[in-house]
Specification:
By secondary structure, the chain is an alpha+beta fold. The protein has helices at 2-11, 30-37, 73-78, 91-94, 109-117, 142-159, 166-169, 171-191, 195-203, 210-221, 225-243, and strands spanning 16-18, 25-26, 43-54, 57-60, 88-90, 122-135.
Length: 244
C-alpha cells in the first residue's frame, strides 16, 4: 500500500494530495471547503468531520468533542482522530520528509505519515461531515496480528529516537500512546487465550488508562474473550446512543 501511494504521489502534478480509500465516499463540497484553508501557508494538513457508518448505524466522528488544530503532533499520538479519506496534504510539506509512506507498512501506514507530517507543518479542520467512512468487522487473522506487532515495533523505535524529540516535546502523549498500544497488545493476547501475557501488557504501561484497568479486572474475574467481546460491543452501542 505504501509503495503504491508513493508511486502515485510522485506522478502527481498538483499542489495538494487527498486520499479516498476503496469503499469510502467524499461529499460533493469536500475539496472546496478544504482547499480554502490552505490560503494560510503554514497549514499543511486539512481534515474534516466524517460520517462513520457501521452496519445500519451512522454517527459523526466529532459529535461532542471537537478535534484540535494547529500543532497536532502530540495530540495525534494520544488518539488517531484523522480518517484517511478526510485528509488533504500540501504536497510541498510531504516532500520535506525523508520519505513519504513507509513501503513496508500496511496497518499503520496512514497513522505513521500523519504523525510525521504534523511535525513539519500546522493543521486545520473543517467542522462539517464531508466524508463517509464504512467500518467493517476487524480482521482478527494471525497474519494481521504479527504484521501489527512488527510495524508497531518500528513505529515505537521512531518515537523513542532522540533526534525526533518526541520524548522531549510530547512525553505525556508518548505515555498515553504506549498505554493504548499495550491495551491493543493485551487484547490480541486475550483473544489468543494467553491471559497471563494479556495482563502483563496491561501492567507494563507507565499510566494505566480507565480502559486498561477495566480490562485487567475483567481478565482477572471473567477470563473469557466471548464475555469481553459482548461487553465491548455493549459499551460501544451505549456510547453511540449517548452521543446522539
Amino acid at each position: 500500500l505504501g509503495e503504491a501511494r508513493n508511486i502515485a504521489i510522485n506522478k502527481t502534478r498538483g499542489d495538494f494530495i487527498a486520499f479516498l480509500d476503496v469503499d469510502d465516499e467524499w461529499l460533493p463540497t469536500k475539496l472546496m471547503f478544504q482547499i480554502n484553508l490552505f490560503n494560510n501557508q503554514d497549514i499543511g494538513i486539512v481534515f474534516c468531520n466524517t460520517i462513520i457508518r457501521e452496519n445500519n448505524n451512522s454517527s459523526n466522528l466529532f459529535n461532542i468533542m471537537k478535534p484540535c488544530s494547529g500543532e497536532i503532533k502530540c495530540k495525534l499520538l494520544e488518539n488517531n482522530f484523522i480518517t484517511t479519506s478526510s485528509l488533504m496534504y500540501r504536497k510541498s510539506d510531504l516532500l520535506k520528509l525523508p520519505f513519504i509512506f513507509r513501503g513496508d507498512f500496511l496497518l499503520l501506514v496512514d497513522y505513521d505519515l500523519s504523525i510525521r507530517v504534523a511535525g513539519v507543518c500546522l493543521a486545520d479542520y473543517v467542522d462539517k461531515p464531508l466524508a463517509i467512512v464504512y467500518k467493517h468487522q476487524d480482521n482478527a487473522s494471525s497474519s494481521n496480528k504479527y504484521k501489527y506487532l512488527k510495524e508497531s515495533k518500528i513505529f515505537i523505535k521512531y518515537l523513542y529516537d532522540k533526534k525526533n524529540k518526541f520524548i522531549e516535546n510530547c512525553s505525556e502523549s508518548v505515555s498515553r500512546f504506549m498505554s493504548r498500544h499495550n491495551s491493543h497488545l493485551a487484547e490480541i493476547e486475550f483473544e489468543s487465550g494467553n491471559i497471563l501475557k494479556a495482563k502483563k501488557f496491561l501492567l507494563s504501561s507507565n499510566k494505566m488508562s480507565i480502559q486498561n484497568i477495566f480490562m485487567y479486572v475483567l481478565l482477572t474475574i471473567l477470563p473469557s474473550y466471548k464475555i469481553y467481546s459482548f461487553l465491548k460491543l455493549f459499551f460501544k452501542k451505549f456510547f453511540r446512543l449517548f452521543k446522539r
